[in-house]
Amino acid sequence: MMTHFSSTCCLAKKHILIVNQNLLDLYSCVFLIVTYGLKLFNIDLTGSLGYWLCMLVLSENLLWCGVYGSFCNLTVIAVDRYLKDVTHAKARSYEHVYSENKHQNEAI
Q1: Per-residue pLDDT tens for 42-77?
Q2: 28 φ, ψ (degrees, to nearest 5)
Q3: Where are the domains of the chain?
Q4: Whole-prediction pTM value?
């Protein structure tokens, strides 16, 4: 039971950035549809509701928050994968050197 739980947690940790990317893309798509849908209807922007609607939705601020978040998340994913590849390659090269040294010491 414990090994199943730990493997599930590891799986969740590996894919958290991908899930986050999907949610940011969904957020951006929804606000893209909402923003340009509201622009097509040419709504009268009066009062405090009109002010906040203009400031957040029609000015595309909420849309661009999702897009910039998506850019940042893609950068984190790229750096994470790069570091995993580089670290793995370095570990493999050190393992090769260690095994050669071990065989040389055994021969002596």
Answers
A1: 888 888 888 888 888 888 888 999 999 999 999 998
A2: -65, -40
A3: 20-107
A4: 0.66
